[in-house]
């Protein structure tokens, strides 16, 4: 039987960086995740999305994405990706990177210094200089490519229906939008704008670095202490991080036409904001029974038994305190399917009990948890979630015990709190021009 070393080291460095190192030889790679956290603003969301693409494309000293790929290849095929996400009231720009463990490569070969130099180079050596012709070309190219990527998303009708649902629900306030860039903001964005936001971002961001593998803690401390950061005055809490509706909302049904043969339905159910780990688990179980799994009420009844939808499922939007149902349906069935979704919610409440099906769903979620935690990147992500949400504990034993204790009566209570607040149907009509 394999035995793995596992020790946890945490320190706040002098430049404000929070460093968490999980010392482990469980995996063949060393992995680091660097997170920059700042309050959300729509224009900054567009800037950060563009900035992340430019970081992946080079730096002041690295001329292109091809040059980055060459460096990664020399580091025994290291990997690196940069992304931007919205977490409630905050942005997260995340650099995730991994490299083969030092003890698994040729003796006398050291890659860690070069690896950390690359991370530092991409994050902190960005010129954003209008007089730099190469950088201006990169800016214009990445801006155009990002605009094209956003335009292509319009062809995804399911995504469009969900976006329109949020826009109507939040009346076009900033809570309606994700971290994805906005076309109007991108169009007017200049390199000066990007430089200004980049400099402010370095001064105000909370920076969290999480590493997993075999590291020299003192060496990592020293290396990260050279990062040119102003000590952040804020440690942004993710407790009470809900994007609340600005006013009470009664359920409305809206319909718009688009080109195509199929309709796309999106429905938002307001649910109590899951602030604690147990509340999150109860909502997870309720949603799995409702529409998340292939054996859920919505899938088995609306798709399989009644054949009313090509696809139907539900998902939790944690930050907004919503359960969102999406369905691909015939263009003539929007209203009928939306009514049936509400009816199936009531049917689930009426029929749910502590039976074999209920216990199998709990067992499936426990199994999913066991599998998900056996991943280096997930171990780091769970560590970050626990830091931001102190009541959460991503431990298999804790999760299993809490899940097994949940009863059908508790889940019925959660389901009864599902309140339909908005329905949006994107109706496909063949005669509509794009």
TrEMBL record:
Keywords: Coiled coil. GO terms for molecular function: metal ion binding. Residues 189-362 form the Peptidase M16 C-terminal domain. Pfam families: Peptidase_M16_C (PF05193). Residues 136-163 form a coiled coil. InterPro entries: Metalloenz_LuxS/M16, MPP/UQCRC_Complex, Peptidase_M16_C. This is Peptidase M16 C-terminal domain-containing protein. It comes from Dolosicoccus paucivorans. The lineage of its organism: Bacteria, Bacillati, Bacillota, Bacilli, Lactobacillales.
């Amino acid at each position: 039987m394999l035995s793995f070393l596992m020790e946890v080291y945490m320190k706040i460095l002098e430049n404000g960086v929070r460093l968490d190192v999980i010392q482990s030889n469980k995996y063949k790679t060393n992995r680091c995740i660097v997170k920059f956290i700042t309050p959300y603003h729509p224009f900054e969301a567009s800037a950060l999305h563009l900035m992340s693409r430019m970081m992946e494309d080079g730096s002041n000293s690295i001329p292109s994405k091809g040059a980055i790929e060459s460096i990664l290849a020399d580091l025994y095929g290291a990997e690196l990706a940069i992304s931007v996400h919205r977490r409630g009231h905050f942005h997260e720009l995340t650099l995730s990177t991994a490299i083969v463990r030092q003890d698994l490569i040729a003796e006398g070969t050291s890659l860690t210094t070069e690896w950390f130099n690359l991370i530092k180079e991409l994050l902190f050596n960005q010129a954003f200089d209008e007089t730099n012709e190469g950088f201006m070309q990169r800016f214009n190219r990445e801006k155009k490519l990002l605009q094209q990527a956003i335009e292509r998303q319009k062809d995804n009708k399911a995504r469009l229906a969900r976006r329109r649902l949020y826009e109507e629900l939040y009346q076009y306030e900033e809570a309606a939008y994700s971290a994805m860039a906005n076309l109007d903001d991108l169009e007017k964005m200049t390199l000066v704008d990007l430089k200004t936001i980049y400099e402010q971002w370095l001064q105000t961001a909370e920076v969290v670095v999480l590493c997993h593998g075999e590291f020299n803690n003192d060496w990592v401390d020293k290396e990260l202490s050279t990062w040119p950061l102003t000590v952040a005055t804020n440690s942004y809490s993710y407790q009470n991080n809900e994007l609340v509706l600005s006013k009470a909302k009664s359920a409305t049904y809206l319909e718009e036409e688009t080109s195509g043969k199929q309709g796309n339905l999106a429905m938002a159910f307001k649910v109590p904001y899951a602030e604690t780990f147990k509340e999150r688990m109860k909502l997870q179980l309720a949603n799995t029974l409702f529409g998340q799994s292939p054996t859920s009420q919505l899938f088995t009844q609306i798709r399989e038994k009644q054949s009313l939808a090509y696809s139907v499922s539900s998902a939790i939007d944690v930050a907004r305190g919503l359960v969102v149902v999406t369905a691909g349906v015939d263009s003539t069935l929007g209203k009928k399917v939306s009514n049936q979704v509400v009816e199936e919610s009531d049917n689930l409440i009426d029929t749910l009990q502590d039976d074999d099906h209920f216990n199998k769903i709990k067992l499936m979620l426990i199994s999913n948890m066991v599998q998900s935690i056996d991943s280096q990147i997930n171990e780091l992500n769970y560590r970050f979630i626990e830091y931001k949400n102190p009541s959460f504990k991503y431990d298999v034993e804790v999760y299993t015990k809490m899940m097994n204790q949940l009863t059908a009566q508790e889940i019925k209570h959660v389901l009864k709190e599902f309140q339909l607040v908005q329905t949006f149907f994107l109706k496909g009509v063949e005669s509509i021009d794009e």
